[in-house]
Specification:
The complex is a heterodimer.
Chain A (H helix, E strand, L loop, with lengths): L3 E6 L3 H13 L3 E6 L21 H4 L6 H4 L3 E3 L4 E5 L4 E4 L4 E3 L2 E4 L3 E3 L12 E3 L3 H11 L4 E5 L3 H12 L4 E5 L12 H13 L2 E4 L4 E5 L6 E4 L4 E3 L2 E4 L3 E3 L2 H5 L10 E2 L11 E3 L4 E3 L2 E2 L3 H15 L13 E5 L2 E7 L8 E8 L4 E8 L5 E7 L5 H9 L10 H4 L8 H8 L5 E3 L4 E2 H9 L6 H8 L9 H14 L16 H10 L5 H8 L8 H13 L14 H4 L3 E2 L5 E3 L10 H13 L3 E4 L5 E6 L4 H10 L12 E6 L13 H12 L8 E6 L13 E5 L4 E5 L11 E7 L1 H18 L6 H7 L3 H9 L7 H13 L4 H7 L1 H4 L18 E4 L2 E4 L6
Parallel strand pairs in A: 1-2, 1-7, 2-3, 7-19, 9-16, 10-11, 10-16, 11-12, 18-20, 33-34, 34-35
Antiparallel strand pairs in A: 4-5, 5-6, 8-17, 13-14, 14-15, 20-21, 22-23, 23-26, 24-25, 25-26, 27-28, 29-30, 30-32, 31-32, 35-36, 36-37, 38-39
Helix pairs in contact in A: 1-8, 12-14, 15-17, 20-26, 22-25
Chain B lengths: L5 E8 L7 E7 L2 E8 L4 E6 L1 E2 L4 E2 L5 E5 L2 E5 L6 E3 L15 E2 L1 E4 L2 E7 L1
The chains are: A alpha/beta, B mainly beta.
């Protein structure tokens, strides 16, 4: 078959999506892509994350071989400069002349730069590409104050980027009387402004900029009202301008205010030329969002493959997190009386504003705005798009049902029609998702993602996809249980009991007796953790070794590049000078990067696998032992210096911390465990942020439990007050055994407590009042674990069978992994970045 | 017609391999991950490089199965790959190269195409 040639001009998000769509539908095209930028298409929506530690490669939409594998020829850094429609050829900047059968313009847009005097001064930037970001980043090194011109969606994103660059002051200047004028109303903007102000953004609305002042470089902005604002850097984000110059040049029709005119098949005035994304002008609209761009790509790809799809405009509803604040706008957010009625909710305390617009007869939802809390967005959008009849009290939609049943959410989900669009990025309907569960047997979000592509774009619909999956499984009569994985149709707690009852001692035995299949990366570490919690055997005993999670398997934390980090235990954070010297000597000898951890210990990074036993030999000889930083186990018990030195200290917090750390060292649990002891209520050890934390009082100790830091910090709650040292330890024994026995896998103590019926009251009853009658058994079990403690590293270096595993090559044990690379930073080494592509 | 010949590279002794786990074999400049699936009495070999973040790590991963298909999970981000076809089972990473394995007289050989 003769392959027709499709040339795509532009390798942005939409151009890339078009290639994906076309190759997934047909192999019959010879596809050639020209991109102006030097890199493959990347995620422009999340551009500000580039300042947040993400690399260009992280933002990339494809892996480096993707175009090759799809047989697509990709010319990067080579913009097309001319189209000859007579001969159907294009001319690239580098001199390539190629024929096409179909041409797809996906040239996107550039930043609109208003004609303000001084706009060409140094320190004025636009915010569009990774190159722009690089320029901003370099210039910002010498800047204290930054400003963004434009308070729209993209402008606020740019402001976020400036905040991430640690500028002392960031301003946003908007010409209109409110922020995001196309999405939200004045009241919503007011709420958003208040919230953003608390995050350090100064916002100026109603400000027309008259000039940019400064000698060569920008120094300040002058406004129409005569006021002035000092700024060292300015990012312009005042809108977009479609890149239509190529089309214009070859006589394809463009709109008077820019944009390549297209019909509903995305065809331009030349039937073999299409335009998609932000360069296309459909029905007087430029669509500056990603979802409609993807839909346009789908339309062209389908039509080239003889499908029959049309673009009929697109819902501009959107939900996003701006600098940590949820903002959503859907349907018609602005409609007012007499066309409709609005229900408003405002909570200035929490910074929440919600507005829904309903039809005059109260039957339908027309649109709305959510600021500060947007969980209901997906459901509300579905209610608008599918014209679902409203409940008798539509205010419940934004306030939650008060006093009635709490089933509104699921009822809503069930009430959606099959063609309701759930994932708008990939255009996946409810019917398709439910069908993938019923007919294709997808019973995890990952499986659904793979099968339907739902949730693979912005990811905003994933909670809904999950709810739909559970809902469909229930409908199909499937008993939805909280089981471990396909190999164990049991919960973690059931497995715990079975291992004990059947006296099972290693992973293979557990799988043979109560599981099926060959196991996987989910059940293996889970069972290994249970075995360790119950029997406390050396985790690398044959039969247990390869079922350990990767860090446990090598008793060290794997880091970027495949080397490991080493953390010796430093109980309570107390260490003699000579031991500090040893750590320094070992780190120097093996070329390790050293850093103090958050838990008062010292971490040594960059150890080759085969050096680990040698390093530990030296550390153990000097009196160190494993710190279990690699395990879901007790990490560290942090302490303040306490009454031995501190003039405020009530008790000796260091001694107590050491006692606790040595008691629970090596204890395996559903997740890592952290603890701390503070010598007085000033709480220097931050005990209330730990899984169990202890604070000295005049009369004894207060025990706090179930706190944690991490992504969702939570304070620990008081379990017992003014208890003596031995009682406190008894309570901790019982608390830990109860947690180890009943928590779901990888659940820390805070979410465990959050799910517990009865909460802290119930927990206190179990631990302090022994309401389950388990206290004695748990104390005995804990004492057995304490008695059988061994330093895993000591056992490992003394056992030649285990030591043998610490080599990179099985057939060249003396050689290290040659692919390991380091860079230098501040006089130490660091791991080379993920990819060098 | 193109003829391909298989070169059998001697990797290690059976007892050097890790039961129900992997080892890394140095094969010229290349690194090959060799898996001994004792439960199924099967051997598999794949490239050692995980394509997701280009880390030499698959031999240190965990093996298992999805349905009947044997698989390997990379220790870095738990991306999983079929050991029989090399296909990526989690998302869109590219597939990994697989190699035939044979065992003779207590020695394990990996088949390389010339």
């Amino acid at each position: 078959m003769n392959h027709e040639t499709v040339i795509v001009i532009g390798n942005g998000m939409v151009g890339h999506k078009f290639c994906e769509k076309l190759t997934s539908k047909s192999d019959n095209f010879n596809i050639i892509v020209f991109g102006e930028e030097p890199r493959r298409a990347y995620d422009r929506v999340h551009l500000s994350e580039y300042f947040n530690g993400k690399s260009a490669e992280d933002l990339s939409l494809s892996h480096e071989n993707w175009y090759n594998e799809q047989n697509i020829t990709l010319h990067l850094g080579d913009p097309v400069k001319e189209i000859d429609r007579e001969s159907k050829t294009i001319h690239s900047n580098k001199g390539l002349i190629l024929n096409y059968d179909y041409l797809v313009l996906a040239t996107g847009s550039s930043a609109f730069v208003p004609d303000i005097p001084g706009v060409d001064k140094e320190g004025v930037f636009v915010y569009r590409t990774i190159e722009d970001l690089e320029l901003i980043k370099n210039y910002a090194l010498n800047a204290k104050t930054g400003s963004v011109l434009g308070g729209g969606l993209l402008g606020l994103e740019a402001a976020k980027a400036l905040i991430d660059l640690n500028l002392a002051e960031t301003n946003v200047i908007e010409f209109a009387p409110r922020l995001m004028p196309r999405q939200i109303d004045s009241a919503g903007s007011q709420m958003l402004q208040t919230k953003l102000a608390t995050l350090g953004l100064s916002i100026y609305t109603n400000k027309g900029t008259s000039s940019i002042e400064g000698e060569n470089r920008i120094e300040s902005l002058k406004f129409n009202d005569g006021s002035e604002l000092k700024t060292d850097i300015l990012v312009i984000s005042a809108g977009i301008r479609p890149r239509d110059e190529l089309a214009k040049l070859c006589g394809i029709e463009v709109g008077t205010r820019g944009g390549v005119l297209v019909n509903e098949s995305m065809q331009t005035s030349d039937p073999s030329v299409f335009a998609i994304g932000e360069c296309a002008l459909f029905n007087h609209n430029i669509y500056g969002l990603i979802a409609p761009g993807y839909e346009m790509a789908e339309v062209v790809a389908a039509n080239l493959c003889e499908g029959n799809k049309t673009f009929n405009g697109f819902d501009m509803s959107t939900k996003l997190k701006l600098i940590g604040v949820d903002v959503a706008s859907f349907g018609d957010p602005f409609t007012t009386e007499p066309d409709s009625r609005s229900i408003l909710f405002e909570d200035t305390h929490k910074g929440i504003y919600k507005r829904i617009n309903i039809s005059n007869d109260g039957k339908y939802l027309l649109g709305g705005i959510l600021i500060g809390e947007a969980e209901a967005y997906n459901m509300l959008l579905q209610t608008v798009n599918n014209k679902i009849a409203l409940p008798p009290n539509p205010e419940d939609l934004i306030l939650g049902s008060r006093g009635g049943s709490s089933q509104t959410e699921n009822a809503g989900l069930a009430g959606l029609p099959d063609d309701a669009l759930i994932c708008s990025c990939e255009g996946v309907s409810k019917g398709t998702i439910c069908n993938s569960v019923s007919a294709e047997g997808c019973e995890s979000v990952d499986a659904i993602k793979k099968c339907t592509k739902a949730g693979t774009g912005c990811g905003g619909c994933i909670p809904m996809v999950k709810d739909l999956m559970l809902h469909t499984m229930k409908e199909n009569g499937k008993y939805v249980r909280n089981v471990v994985c396909e190999h164990f149709q049991l919960s973690r707690q059931e497995l715990y009991d079975l291992i004990k009852i059947h006296n099972l001692k290693n992973y293979e035995q557990v799988l043979d007796n109560v599981g099926k299949g060959d196991g996987c990366e989910i059940c293996k570490p889970l069972v290994s953790s249970l075995l360790a919690s119950i029997w406390n055997d050396m985790i690398l005993k044959r039969g247990n070794d390869t079922a350990q999670d990767s860090n446990d398997r090598f008793l060290a934390n794997i880091q970027k590049g495949g080397t490991y980090s080493v953390v010796p235990r430093i109980p309570g954070g107390e260490i003699k000078p000579e031991k500090l010297v040893i750590i320094g000597e070992v780190a120097e000898k093996y070329g390790l990067y050293t850093k103090i951890t958050g838990g008062q210990r010292i971490d040594m990074f960059g150890a080759h696998l085969s050096d680990l036993p040698l390093i530990w030999e030296e550390l153990i000889a000097a009196g160190f032992e494993s710190g279990h930083a690699y395990g879901k186990a007790l990490r560290t018990v942090k302490s303040c210096v306490g009454s031995t030195w501190c003039r405020f200290g009530l008790h000796d917090s260091v001694s107590y911390a050491i006692r606790i750390e040595e008691r629970y060292r090596g204890l395996r649990a559903p997740h890592k465990l952290k603890s701390a002891v503070s010598g007085c209520i000033r709480e220097c050890a931050e005990a209330q942020s730990k899984d169990f934390g202890i604070i000295a009082t005049e009369k004894g100790w207060n025990l706090y439990v179930c706190g944690n830091g991490g992504s969702k910090p939570q304070h620990a709650l008081l379990l017992a007050s003014d208890v003596d040292s031995d009682t406190c330890i008894k309570y901790i024994d019982r608390f830990l055994m109860f947690y180890i026995r009943t928590a779901d896998p990888l659940t820390r103590t805070a979410p465990w407590l959050n799910k517990m019926e009865g909460g802290i009251e119930y927990l206190r009853n179990v631990v302090v009042n022994d309401s389950l009658g388990m206290a004695e058994q748990w104390e005995i079990e804990m004492q057995n674990i304490v008695n059988s403690y061994q330093c895993e590293w000591k056992t490992a270096i003394e056992d030649p069978e285990i030591r043998k595993r610490f080599n990179h090559f099985v057939n060249a044990p003396e050689e290290k992994d040659p692919s390991v690379k380091f860079d230098e930073m501040r006089g130490q080494k660091k791991a080379a970045n993920w990819t060098t592509a | 017609m193109i003829e391909t010949t298989t070169n059998w590279f001697e990797a290690c002794r059976v007892e050097d391999a890790v039961q129900n786990g992997g080892v890394c074999v140095k094969c010229g400049e290349e690194q090959i991950a060799l898996f001994y699936f004792t439960r199924r009495n099967e051997w598999y070999a794949t490239q050692n490089l995980c394509p997701h973040r280009r880390q030499m790590a698959l031999s240190r991963g965990m093996i298992g199965s999805v349905g009947e298909d044997p698989k390997i999970a990379c220790p870095f981000h738990k991306k999983t790959f079929s050991l029989s076809t090399g296909e990526c089972l989690s998302g869109d990473e590219c597939a990994i190269q697989t190699y035939p394995v044979k065992v003779e007289d207590g020695l394990v050989y990996i088949g390389l195409q010339n």
